[in-house]
Amino acid sequence: MKRLLYQNLLDWKNKENRKPLILNGARQVGKTWLVKEFGKNEYKNLVYINCDKNSQVKSLFENGYNIKNILLGLGAISNQTIIPTETLIFIDEIQEIPEALTSLKYFCEEASEYHIIAAGSLLGVSLNVGTGFPVGKVDILHLYPMSFLEFVLAVKGEQLFSLLKEGTFDDISIFHPTFVELLRQYYFCGGMPESVLAFVEDKSVAEIRTIQESILYSYQKDIAKHPHKNDIPKIHQVWSAIPNQLAKENKKFIYGALKKWARAKDFENAVQWLLDAGLIYKVSNVKKATIPLKFYEDFNAFKLFMLDTGLMGALAETPPSQMLIGNNIFEEFKGAFTELFVFTQLKSLKQSGLSSIFYYNAEDSKQELDFIFQKDEKIIPVEVKAEENLRAKSLRQFVLDHPDTKGIRFSMSPYREQDWMTNIPLYAVHKVLM
Fold first, then answer.
1. CA–CA separation, 219 vs 243, rounded Å?
2. In Å, what is the CA distance from 225 to each residue of 277, 415, 426?
3. CB-based contacts of 182: which residues, under 8 Å, 6+ apart?
4. Using CB atoms within 10 A as the burial measure, which of 77, 268, 331, 426 is most buried?
5. What are the Cα distances from residue 238, in Å, to 127, 244, 431?
6. For residue 57, pLDDT beyond 90
7. Quick one: pLDDT band at residue 9, thresholds 50, 70, 90?
């Protein structure tokens, strides 16, 4: 399978001012596979070092930051000769050895001719327990679950992928039924590479759901490693409540739904842990639609999204038949899966230049927009429609109140351009930046 981030890795390799690269992302999104594939294809040799429960590597990095000695040690451990520009050094699960993470600073300052990539599944969590992060001395990329574009590439191949990615809406609309069917399959399968591979290999629906449940179990084991045992039940509560909260008409996260009389201070550490682990995303409200939106972020009002539609289906025990047959999945649960789908696709565009994503709920009205973000010097208001009723009252009113904006509606309807709004079909969310 191919990942679009591969091109970002190539760009990093060819940078004149290249720094050590950190590839961040949740567990099992494909970081290790991608870097190994990149190293195999683009370098003469790959030195792979896994820091997880590796006492030899731990001793090497704990012995100081003499880069010459570290390189000799890495060569001895891997039984390979490390040559600048010809060897890719890949340090996996780097969060397990804080000194290894700190050493990236010295690689940047003293040995920039060496190409080094580090990856970590719980790197964000480890940074909150005193890890010496090499601020300003590393490049950073984030790997998300496979996007719908990548899913189409894996399932249908280059031609349909290229049509969806680069084609005009007139050309794409010819294949509307095909893309709707693929979208339905993606809602069920999601973008975790192991699930997608099983789908490509025609594994049964039950086998794919078992893979998803296994991934969820691995996340539960990560939660159980939390050093503060009192927080573990709270993390589980927040994690398990997300599908229910997204299925409400008002998708704002409500602490009181977790426990009667619960307040933010009771669960904020649990939410932060899940954010740091990359298992959830937080979308804050903005009460004023003015650039820069971050100035008007309301930290007390937010939505929480899981990282993947397939995993949410498994966590919520949604019957596969309900997701794969007919169009119910687009409409049921108050459009929870559709809003999650749109958000994850927008999130995957972050490295293509998309700004931070918020939602909008004006203080003095009932007007609410599912998402809002900046594009260049413009505000882009977004509504997501899963059902056939395409009336967009809030979006229309927002555009009337902000004449310099033009709305975006994502829906099951084909592409349509109007003076105040552009309707983009759900399977073409990536076109929002074009």
1. 16
2. 12, 47, 38
3. 148, 151, 152, 155, 156, 427
4. 426
5. 21, 10, 33
6. yes
7. very high
Other Cβ atoms closer than 10 A to 84: 11
Other C-beta atoms lying within 10 Å of the C-beta of residue 377: 7
Q: Are 335 and 384 in contact (CB under 8 A)?
A: yes
pTM for the full model? 0.93
User: What mean pLDDT comes out for the span 323-345?
Assistant: 78
- Residue 380 tokens, joined: 């882009």
pLDDT tens, 339-356?
A: 999 999 999 887 666 778
Per-residue tokens: 101: 């993470």
Give the pLDDT score at 66.
Answer: 94
What's residue 336's pLDDT? 86
- Which residue is associated with the tokens 């619960």? 262
Q: Which of 91-95, 202-206, 323-327 has the weakest average pLDDT? A: 323-327
Predicted confidence (pLDDT) per residue in 220-235, tens digit:
998 888 767 888 999 9
**Mean of pLDDT values over 278-302:** 91
**pLDDT-derived band at 331, boundaries 50, 70, 90:** low
Torsion sign, CA atoms 306, 309, 310, 313: positive
Query: Order of strands, edge to edge, in the sheet holding 378-384?
Result: 297-306, 280-286, 358-361, 368-375, 378-384, 407-411, 421-425, 416-417
Residue 387 confidence (pLDDT): 66
